[in-house]
Specification:
The complex is a heterodimer. In chain A, 33% of the residues lie in helices and 36% in strands. Chain A is an alpha+beta fold. Chain A has two domains: 8-42, no CATH class; 51-147, 2-Layer Sandwich (GMP Synthetase, Chain A, domain 3), CATH 3.30.300.20. Chain B is elongated. The longest helix of chain B has 23 residues, at 50-72. Classes of the chains: A alpha+beta, B alpha+beta.
């Protein structure tokens, strides 16, 4: 199997309370120097991304690819899938901040596929998506799927 | 207090021949970003991928945790430069994350910096979320 390697880079300046970091997608160049801070990670984002938002982007994109693959293998390739992912971080007493939950909500336009078939494909996609497996090892993952 | 972050992706067509769009981030900080299987599994051609986003999330979280640890020890960093490299094997999953950090930290020796970096690697929320990755390595040194 081929090994796929992707890299990102961060520069951080200053101490944590007043510092600011910048995040770049080194492999693709798809985004560069996105600023982030402690205040906007924990509180209102005020236009700044955060590790949890990037994780939500990764999980949602990964799940949508897995779902497209499962539906195609079942003989009902999708026309269109809409996948929403919400990642929750919470402060756990004695353990600090932890990512506790990732919620996936999928809607699909899938010719010749009924609700049961779509739900089954979503379940298989969750089982096969590498990010669902990783997140589930330390947090909860919930998937809901309905046809559009 | 729980913090939520939301992202949405649209996918059109099959995995191999279709294409996806990661919509503008809930924060407004980036996007929309195109994704495809070819650019995930082969050359990126300017497109991001779940693995690159994980690398971004992990390097960002690690840097913040290390900055916090150094500040708490009374030796705040002037600058930290971190990269995360994520290895993905289709059919197996994410097999490795390699973290590299170079720090400018007045009043800190190499061993103290490395120990602070090891603590950040264990303690940051994304590290905890990725704890089941078979191999997470750290190369830490003063700049």
């Amino acid at each position: 199997m081929p090994r796929i390697v992707r890299e990102a880079a961060v520069s951080w300046e200053g101490n944590v309370a007043r510092g600011v970091g910048r995040i770049s997608a080194t492999s693709s160049g798809a985004f560069t120097e996105l600023p982030y801070t402690v205040a906007t990670r924990i509180g209102a984002p005020e236009g700044k991304t955060s590790p949890e938002e990037l994780l939500a982007a990764a999980h949602g994109a990964c799940f949508s690819m897995s779902l497209a693959s499962e539906l195609t293998q079942a003989g009902t390739p999708p026309e269109r899938l809409e996948v929403r992912c919400v990642v929750t971080m919470d402060e756990i007493e004695g353990k600090g901040h932890q990512i506790v939950h990732s919620e996936i909500e999928a809607h699909g336009t899938v010719p010749n596929c009924d609700e049961a078939g779509f739900a089954q494909a979503a379940e298989a996609a969750d089982a096969g998506c590498p990010l669902s497996a990783l997140i589930r090892a330390s947090a909860t993952v919930a998937v809901s799927a309905t046809l559009s | 207090m729980a913090t939520e972050r939301t992202m949405s992706t649209t996918w059109r067509g099959t995995l191999m021949d279709g294409a996806g769009t990661i919509h503008e981030a809930g924060s407004g900080a980036f996007g929309p970003l195109d994704v495809s299987w070819a650019s995930r599994a082969e050359a990126p051609n300017g497109k991001t991928s779940p693995e690159e986003l994980i690398a971004a999330a992990h390097s960002a979280c690690f840097s913040m945790a290390l900055s916090h640890g150094l500040a708490q020890a009374g030796t705040p960093a002037t600058q930290l430069d971190t990269s995360a490299t994520v290895t993905f094997v289709p059919g197996t999953g994410i097999t490795k994350v390699a973290l590299t950090v170079r720090g400018s930290v007045p009043g800190v020796d190499e061993a103290t910096f490395v120990a602070a970096a090891e603590a950040a690697k264990v303690g940051c929320p994304v590290s905890k979320a990725l704890a089941s990755v078979p191999e997470i390595t750290l190369d830490a040194a003063l700049a």
